[in-house]
Specification:
This protein is of the alpha+beta class and 337 residues long. The protein has two domains: 10-80, no CATH class; 105-316, no CATH class. Helix content is 32%, strand content 23%. Strands 1, 2, 3, 4, 5, 6, 8, 12, 18, 19 and 20 form an eleven-stranded mixed β-sheet that branches. Helix 1 packs antiparallel against helix 2 (33-66) and helix 2 runs antiparallel to helix 3. The longest helix is centred in the first third of the chain and has 34 residues, at 33-66. The chain starts with 9 loop residues before the first helix and ends with a strand.
Length: 337
């Protein structure tokens, strides 16, 4: 689908802009009742038009979520006045492109996140989620509810402590500070990187099934999860991100476990966000392998002053576009315009 430089959910931005224009007109012409009546009339017309665009947007999103295929964004784009001109080099909005190409309910691909509405995650051992941005390669971990993308820097070769002062809190850790200063500054183009939400998740940290439902955990610890949510341009994977990427039985169903959750993310083992690091002194978890578990992946509790591998993640702006033609493979990745 060819697009101009206008984002998915563009209608939402229009509300604020057009409301401001209406207010200015009202102030200028407010001394004349007839003029103000005319402004109200056009304001109503604008509101009706925007409501139509929101309806088209919701219809398109529901089509993507239904996995029915054949989702056509033409009506939505036409409502916004976006021209699909074949003569110009236009971009494909990132979230729309990935949903169109990869949404599935079986095998490897893009799935609905069963915990968070309108969030999508790449699951399986093989994923066509390679993206080129800022002259380097990344992999898409998820599409966030607002349409932004979480991109993993899988080529980054760095080993670091969670915190050089042996502190637990991720939001003040030396690792987070480093990633959002030195590492961020090393990226050639940061214009499309926005502040993302990073949630420390809680799962059973032992080597077997937890005996607890992940739904129960989420409901029981929602308040604690909120208390360890931070916002920054750069973060790292959570324990849940690793487990949710697997299609193995028990890794993303009613009984959440932490062993044998192999996926494309298994190649990128390192520090993870987790509530235990926030609650247990000098303790954090990293993703690893161990022969005692038949080389299955599992999570290791370790001291925050130990050195483990780091895979940074950035949040790509929802209004970013892909140059048409990418397929998400290493040899033909999606390319950010």
């Amino acid at each position: 689908m060819k697009l101009n430089n206008k984002g998915f959910a563009f209608s939402t931005m229009l509300y604020g802009t057009l409301a401001l224009i209406t207010l200015i007109l009202y102030i200028i012409l407010g001394i004349n009742k007839g003029a103000s009546d005319e402004i109200y009339f056009y304001g109503d017309e604008i509101q009706i038009k925007l409501n139509e665009c929101v309806y088209e947007e919701i219809t398109l999103e529901n089509c993507y979520s239904s996995h029915s295929g054949g989702c056509d964004a033409t009506s939505y784009h036409a409502c916004l006045g976006i021209s699909d001109s074949p003569t110009e080099i236009a971009g494909d909005l990132v979230a729309e492109t990935l949903k169109r190409d990869s949404l599935t309910t079986s095998g490897d691909g893009l799935y609905d996140d069963f915990l968070t509405t309108r969030r999508y995650i790449f699951r399986g051992n093989t994923a066509n989620n390679y993206v080129k941005y800022a002259n380097k390669m990344w992999r898409v971990v998820s599409i966030e509810p607002d349409g932004s993308l979480k991109l993993l820097d899988y080529t980054y070769n760095y080993i670091a402590n969670w915190d050089t002062n042996s502190q637990d809190n991720w939001s003040t850790s030396t690792l987070k500070v480093f990633l959002n200063s030195n590492y961020l500054a090393s990226i050639q183009d940061t214009s499309k990187i926005v502040s993302g939400q990073w949630d420390a998740t809680l799962v059973y940290p032992s080597g077997g099934s937890s005996g607890f439902s992940i739904y129960d955990y989420k409901e029981q610890y929602d308040s604690q999860m909120a208390s360890v949510t931070s916002y920054a341009q750069v973060g790292i994977l959570s324990i849940y991100d690793y487990m949710a990427a697997s299609t193995a039985t028990g890794c993303q169903d009613s009984m959440l476990r932490t062993v044998g959750c192999t996926s494309w993310l298994s190649d990128y083992k390192g520090w993870t966000l987790n509530i235990d690091a926030e609650k247990t002194p000098n303790s954090a978890f990293y993703f690893a392998s161990n022969s005692s578990f038949y080389n299955n992946e599992y999570f290791v509790e370790d001291a925050t002053d130990s050195a483990q591998r780091v895979y940074p993640i950035i949040t790509l702006d929802r209004n970013s576009e892909f140059i048409p033609g990418g397929q998400g493979t290493p040899s033909n990745p999606y390319v950010v315009k």
